[in-house]
Write a structure and sequence with these properties.
The complex is a heterodimer of chains A (307) and B (608).
Chain A (H helix, E strand, L loop, with lengths): L1 H28 L4 H5 L8 H11 L5 H13 L13 H36 L4 H15 L2 H15 L10 H31 L2 H8 L4 H38 L5 H10 L3 H29 L1 H4 L2
Chain B lengths: L7 E14 L2 E14 L3 E5 L6 H8 L8 E11 L2 E4 L5 H4 L7 E4 L13 H12 L4 H14 L5 H4 L9 H13 L5 E5 L7 H18 L2 E6 L2 H7 L2 E6 L2 E7 H6 L4 H9 L12 H5 L7 E14 L4 E16 L4 E5 L6 H8 L7 E6 L2 E2 L5 H8 L2 E4 L13 H11 L5 H14 L16 H14 L4 E5 L7 H18 L2 E6 L2 H7 L2 E6 L2 E7 H6 L4 H9 L24 E3 L9 E3 L6 E4 L16
Parallel strand pairs in B: 3-8, 3-9, 6-7, 7-8, 13-18, 13-19, 16-17, 17-18
Antiparallel strand pairs in B: 1-2, 1-4, 4-5, 9-10, 11-12, 11-14, 12-21, 14-15, 19-20, 20-23, 22-23
Classes of the chains: A mainly alpha (307), B alpha/beta (608).
Chain lengths: 307, 608
């Protein structure tokens, strides 16, 4: 178990390190001169000013040198400052991050609850009408693009019916973006849970459990669901990563003041330090979540726990 | 064995089971009536599809409620009162399940929930039916594990199923089933998935506990050997129908029905059906062996620790030397994990070997890549255990048999169809079957198709890996006959991998007994089977159930309860040189010299 944990943490650290490499060289992948592109809109900037900015960003040094400086600052928690406004990137991200986490975690909870329950019911009633209805629902959930769904629920529930605020940061404003973000994930999770549970329901050990005289809830929850959770948990980590990506669009559509919306603004303004900070921040969250999922996986599966 | 006054614990009358299939219904158990007596073992015998398992599940209401229709009566007597089982609701049947009637199943590897500890699984059954505290239930569970002869019972309680071997898991199942002292134990093929030595242990355990608790045992099996060894009375079923019933002696000595007679005649009996060895080949020194394998080793790395370094290796095949001559059948016999299948694959370079040499018709093919082997594949074919899994379900069987003809360009396009038709007729199928799909055939027919595909490219060698294990005895007998006639006609060599000594005796000229990756004894089949020299061979032969109640003695013999040691060895461990000595004056009978010195001896024995 300790070995397993150390292995996961090592591979997580490796992933984060590779991300920092990618981030640092990202700026050089932009065709042409990034500084010129950044300031393309403002014609008044003189070549001397451009040179100064280049120097302040460290872009006049060698790539290796730049990376060393970047890492040195990063290890002290310094992610640089934004080009517009000269604010600290780290502070800005930290300010917005709780909103994004609130949105994604509520969406994940909703998705697991809805997807899990409907997948379980569909598997239990395999081939019967509840299965058919629920699985048709998941096809819709998977096919509808989240930004479109977002616009539809926004115009219906906020504009037409006025049940929820159009924008803002309160709990009321959280409902629509969270549901929209959860819809697609719930459909994916529902399908995974269904196919996993159908496999589990066919296992011999459920017959053993029934032959022991156990009650139906005990057979279904203790024996079936507990075994089924293992493969389900292993895909949840990946689903969360997809969800983080989806959050960027949803935050923009619902004007939710999270990191994703900040990132879109940064992209439009070509604020490279902010984009870099955002990418690093997101990838660290995804890595952390997948480590957490691996731990949960080990907790559920005695075959890993006992090693 | 059973006194006539034994009370009836279960009386079944007119039990029928049918399954809905679309709008029609298919009856799989037809009006079965029988009694189960206290303290006796009733064997329910039948081939696959006879309805024996369905019948036992129907008694406990374990069939899917929406598709199965059960009718008839089953009276269970418990504490002096009679309870009719089939009319009970699921809820009231729950009080009977595990409490008055317990079940154990065929596959111990999958019959226990993988995420719950042995202790939890044992205790939940006890706590469901008995008014005990958790600590009392724990103690009862421990004592049941001890009754089931599980060493270190207390320690096992915290362990999980994956930490136990198949035999140990079946013991746990038995402990679990008997914890509430049921009146009846339904054992559904309890030893089919186990090795013979473990099978003997489990049968003996069931028998001991049956006597101890005066439990009735309903032993469902397809194996006539197991019936003769373990049963008091027999009930023979075929396609859901009652065939005949009676005491074991009666049914085996004077079977009334033609089906029972066929069934008994099909059972290969050890020591009675030796094949005439083709002496001319093995004794002729000039004969060039098809395969000449010397000191072959196959190891699999076991990676452990933080950096996934190789700390130990599974020694699957260890210093194996053998020869396969043209036209002969060499059997590789051993229990699961003995390395017989790995050896079969390693010889064909399907698994990389780490030491030793493989020569095919004088050419060294050791370590050849897949592309180098491809031209040879035409001459070497394989047949696998599961005939359904080895046929692509989306292709017609005609196309499947035609494939090797196309691949190796064996005959001109125009003649191909004709050739496939010929092959179908050769293996006992009709040419009209060519357009059908694999699922439309029975298991035996599918194995015939696999054989047709294997002989399509006129191979010199067929490696048959447990190719009869999934078949019923009557079908098995037919397929053995087919293989033998094909071999005589086409002169194919057969490397026959099997765990079934009786079948091996019937089909093979020479036999090699494998244990822990090594060949411990090898020689002419009759010699090895009738006069086994190595202790492992002796133990293996003793454990084979004899399909004759007058000779059955498995349950009376003291049994070796030991488990097979692990073939995982540290990478630093020194592997002693493995020597074999020919003890026969004429012909061959090699026996492993187990006390061989650690240092490699200068004179290496040339085995076979």
């Amino acid at each position: 178990m300790t070995t397993y944990l150390l292995q996961r943490l090592m591979s997580a650290a490796l992933t984060v390190w590779i991300t920092t490499l990618a981030i640092c060289f990202l700026i050089h992948l932009v065709p042409g001169d990034p500084v010129q592109i950044m300031y393309a809109q403002s014609a008044t900037t003189s070549p001397e000013q451009l040179e100064q900015i280049r120097h302040s960003l460290g872009l006049d040094r060698s790539i290796i040198h730049q990376y060393i400086i970047y890492m040195g600052k990063l290890l002290q928690g310094d992610m640089g400052v934004t080009i517009r406004g000269q604010q600290s990137v780290a502070e800005l991200l930290l300010l917005r991050l709780p909103n994004t986490l609130l949105l994604t975690l509520s969406a994940l909870t909703l998705a697991i609850a809805f997807g899990g329950v409907s997948g379980f019911i569909a598997a239990y009633k395999q081939g019967q009408w509840p299965d058919k209805v629920l699985m048709t629902g998941t096809v819709v959930g998977i096919s509808v693009p989240p930004f479109w769904l977002g616009l539809i629920v926004l115009s219906l529930f906020s504009v037409e019916l006025g049940w929820f605020p159009v924008a803002g940061q309160g709990l009321g404003s959280l409902v629509l973006p969270a549901v929209t973000l959860a819809a697609c994930q719930a459909a994916v999770i529902g399908r995974i849970v269904r196919s996993t549970m159908i496999d589990v329901f066919a296992q011999d050990y459920l017959l053993t459990a029934r032959a022991k005289g156990l009650s139906k809830p005990k057979v279904l929850l203790r024996h079936a669901l507990r075994s089924g959770l293992i493969p389900i948990v292993s895909v949840l980590g990946m689903q969360f990563a997809y969800m983080m990506g989806g959050a960027i669009v949803i935050e923009y559509v619902f004007s939710w003041n999270g990191v994703g919306r900040l990132a879109i603004q940064a992209i439009f303004q070509r604020d490279y330090p902010l984009i870099q900070g955002f990418v690093l921040c997101f990838s660290m969250i995804v890595v952390l979540v997948s480590v957490a999922m691996d731990l949960l996986y080990a907790f559920l599966d005695p075959r890993i726990r006992q090693e | 064995m059973v006194e006539t006054q034994s009370p009836v614990v279960l009386s079944v009358a007119d039990l029928s089971v049918s399954f809905k299939q679309g709008k029609s219904a298919k009856t799989v158990v037809k009006a079965m009536s029988f009694d189960v007596l206290a303290g006796e073992t009733l064997a329910v015998v039948g081939e696959s599809g006879s309805g024996k398992s369905v019948m036992s599940r129907a008694l406990l209401g374990l069939l899917p409620a929406d598709s199965a229709h059960v009718s008839g009566q089953a009276m269970l007597s418990k504490h002096g009162e009679q309870v009719e089982l089939l009319s009970q609701s699921d809820q009231s049947l729950r009080k009977v399940r595990g409490n008055h009637i317990a079940m154990i199943f065929q596959e111990p590897m999958t019959a226990l929930t993988p995420v719950l500890s042995i202790g939890e699984q044992l205790m939940e059954g006890i706590l469901t039916h008995q008014p005990l505290s958790r600590s009392e239930a724990f103690e009862l569970a421990v004592s049941m594990l001890q009754e089931a002869r599980i060493p270190e019972a207390r320690k096992r309680m915290a362990q999980y199923p994956h930490q136990l071997s198949g035999g140990m898991r079946q013991r746990v199942m038995i402990a679990m089933a008997l914890a509430c002292r049921p009146r009846i134990l339904i054992a559904d093929e309890p030893t089919t998935a186990l090795d013979v030595t473990v099978q003997a242990q489990i049968l003996k355990l069931i028998n001991t506990l049956k006597t101890q608790y005066n439990t009735a045992v309903m032993l469902i099996t397809h194996d006539m050997g197991v019936v003769a060894e373990a049963a008091d009375r027999v009930l023979v079923m075929r396609r859901g129908d009652f065939v005949e019933a009676g005491s074991v002696q009666q049914v085996f000595s004077k079977p009334k029905q033609a089906y029972t007679q066929t069934l008994l005649a099909s059972v290969p009996k050890l020591g009675s059906s030796a094949k005439q060895p083709i002496a001319t080949i093995t004794e002729n020194d000039a004969a060039v062996p098809l395969f000449d394998v010397a000191d072959l080793c196959v190891q699999f790395d076991v990676r452990e620790g933080l950096f996934n370094r190789v700390r130990s290796r599974v020694h699957a095949v260890e210093q194996v030397s053998l020869k396969l001559f043209p036209g002969e059948t060499l059997a590789l016999v051993g229990e699961s994990g003995s390395g017989k299948s790995t050896l079969g694959r390693a010889i064909l370079n399907l698994v990389p070997s780490c030491a030793g040499a493989i020569r095919y018709r004088g050419r060294d093919i050791t370590g050849w890549s897949a592309s180098m082997m491809r031209p040879l594949r035409k001459q070497i074919q394989m047949i696998f255990q599961d005939p359904f899994a080895s046929l692509n379900p989306r292709k017609t069987v005609g196309a499947l048999v035609e494939e090797p003809l196309k691949l190796f360009d064996i005959c001109p396009d125009s003649e191909r169809k004709e050739r496939v038709a010929e092959l179908f007729e050769r293996v006992g199928l009709s040419a009209d079957d060519m357009t059908r799909y694999p699922h439309q055939f029975s298991g035996g027919q599918r194995q015939r198709i696999c054989i047709a595909r294997a002989i399509a490219c006129e191979p010199r060698v067929i490696v048959a890996d447990e190719c009869l294990s999934a078949l019923d005895v009557t079908v098995q007998a037919q397929v053995i006959e087919l293989l033998q006639s094909l071999q005589q006609e086409l002169g194919i060599s057969l490397l026959f991998i099997s765990h079934d000594l009786a079948v091996v005796e019937q089909i093979s000229d020479r036999v090699a007994v494998m244990y822990m990756g090594r060949i411990v004894e090898m020689g002419d089949t009759a010699r090895v089977i009738n006069r086994p020299q190595h202790s492992y061979t002796q133990r293996l032969l003793e454990a084979v159930p004899v399909a004759d109640p007058t000779k059955a003695s498995l349950l009376n013999r003291p049994l070796n309860n030991s488990e097979i040691p692990s073939p995982v060895r540290s990478i630093f461990e020194e592997i002693p040189r493995h020597n074999m000595t020919n003890i026969a004056s004429i012909g061959e009978h090699y026996v492993a010299d187990d006390s061989a010195a650690v240092a490699p001896s200068p004179v290496t024995e040339d085995v076979a």
